[in-house]
Amino acid sequence: MPVSRDIVRTYRGPRRVVRGLLAMGPREDRAIMWLMAGCLIVFVSRLPALQREAVLAEGDFTRDAAYAFFGLMMVAPLLFYLLAFLGRGAAYVVAWLAAYLFNWQSNDRRFGAGPDGYGARVALFWAWLAATPLALFYGLLVGLNGASAPATQMVGGLWLLVLLSFWISGLVEASKGKHELDH
Question: Whole-angstrom Cα distance, residue 44 to residue 178?
């Protein structure tokens, strides 16, 4: 299925989409492509704000765009791998605490045992890519209204909430065991 259609489907049912992505089997090249595409789209969303800053503050648009490109295409992916690792650890802690607090047996866990590394990366990378339409809208508003405008801040907050929602939903789905994903 095309990625754009999966992005739209993610807004209606993020867990179902992540379940389908995980069912395609572990492909690290696919996961990093989602991450890099998301970073490229977020870079494009930054361009209106960089242009606004260059015009209003007489900055150097080319230099700022080059720095943003380097940061989003070279540095951010490394940080996303670290964030996926930390998210995986947090999912394990939540699963362990839930099992401990509610006296769940190992075969009765509602959250599974925590995601594997690939599942944690897919959850984060897909959430990042799926939230990019809001990033584009946010970037447009920053370029037109500035970052301090109430509408811009509201859309930025919505972007963050959607990103976190997609990521948590993906982690929950990735935490299910393989036998649970088949059903």
Answer: 37
